Fold:
Amino acid sequence: MATRLVLVVIAVGALATESLGLTILPPVQVGTNSALDEVSGLVGSRSIADTLWVHNDSGDSARFYAIDTLGNLQGQFFLSGAAAIDWEDMAIGPKQGGGNYLYLGDIGDNDKDRSQIWVYRVDEPQVATGGTIGAGSYAQALLEYPSGAQNAESLTVDPLTGEIYIVAKDESRRVYRAAADAFDHPGVASTLTDLGTLNAPLFRPSAADISPDGLHILVRDRSTTAYLFKRTVGQSVWDALQTPGIPFTLAAESQGEAIGWAADGMGFYTTSEWDGDGPRPIYFYGFTVPEPASVQLAVCGIVALCGYLGLCRRSRRRLHPN
Structure:
């Protein structure tokens, strides 16, 4: 809690400095992961405070883990009967009727020798202590590339539509989409739609995530390079990804393959795979975005800047609950 309070204070200062513009704050190390060797997928839990869902890269079994934001391992969840050829990224999105889904992407293919890939969908656990998820308690989507095998490490799901997006890792940076109903046809391959090339000069994209409100898209590579894409109301994810995007610099990580928004959308986390050189930091980046002018005037009024910032911070939490 103390760490997040410090981040909020820093964020208010940044808002004044940036003339109330969109701001990504410098990274703050909030924890250290020493329990898992190859964290490749990460999302912020919507059901358990200060918890991250993560999974390892290839070489692990079909399971994901709960860790707290300090990096402590809380539990592990096994998908009974599922395959784990090369899990590379995960996503989270709302479930019709309440709750959320976790999406686990078995999408890695360094040798490009499989044209079909799997994405698993499970209900987000309500506890972090672990367990086994039976074969009848998760769904799986079999996806097929339209023009041969691709290697990918970036998976995200549109929280507004449930559509799945995959970004190829190679220089092509091709973006593929699957409909939300791909999970409705077990064992039947759904052909991915090839949308085109990601409009950002990332070298081998390694992770992606969409904010809880669906309006901000993150894509990173293994180095310190990342892009933020702003999405307008009514705009598709693909249309947003065709814009120039906003480049920013991540903290140096040995092999960064994970990025995920916090549940409140006011920041995001990153971490790295292990390179044999000690535990891996968990970083948090605070994120602020201006309220619409009409909301600022209605809620804040015309007041001194300090009062304005304080009122807007509280009103944002009331007007935009998670």
